[in-house]
Amino acid sequence: MSDTDIAPPDPIFDALWAADMPPARDPAFVIGVLERAHRRTLWIDLLGLIPAVIALGVVAWILSPAMAELARALARIATAPRFAASLAILAVLGGIYMMLHPSTEFGET
Amino acid sequence: MSLDAESAAILAAKRGSNEAFARLVGLHQQAVRAFLRRLAGHHGDADDLAQEAFLTAWTRIGAFRDGQSFRSWLMGVAYRKWLTDRRGRTRLRTRETEAWRDGPKVSSENLDARLDAATILQALPAEQRAAVALCLAGGFSHVEAADSLGLPLGTVKSHVSRGRAKLLELMGGADE
User: Does this model's pTM top 0.90?
Assistant: First the structure.
């Protein structure tokens, strides 16, 4: 027998090999592999986001004094009576518009 | 699946096609799982390892060379996965020992066939078991098995020959 030849089947071992033989077609196994692959990809993606999140945190920390100042200025505007009234009017107008022009009918998918 | 279709699926999987990779898994799952079941001796652990082996194969499919036998390459990935797992898991070794100690003996008439097969194969040393599983059970040539296991050709031949004799001895049969 040459090195590239395949050993002829040995009937004496047939029962031995048959005991470990999985089915020729097993969609559940294939799906299991794909699910694992997707889970792994998700984890890799999430881990890949960590540097971006850290960078964002550092930027936010650097800008925090300026952001605090901006927030205080916005708070002064937002709590002014005229601004609050304008927001309320806009909300009412927006509600009326959406009632007259619904994007989908109720129950429509 | 023909060889051309397999090559096309490998190429598509290299480009990131999930569908092509699923076709390859479907095509080779039986051989890889049978190989690992014979090595590990426990079907649940072996199937788990087989899934891991396919994942590793997918992430490293770029390293697969054209012209190489895909099934040999895949079995090599599975074999290395099993070796790594075996080193790290002492409980598997404990289970093998318990199966050997507590399980019914080979000569009994009413043996559970699966436990019987696992017990007999676990009696072979790891490399010998792998060579036997590929060449005698899996229909691999000695060259293919040597490629998969990363062993010299002569070593594989020796493992197969000695492994076969040992199996016959354990099964109570005489070598021809």
Answer: no
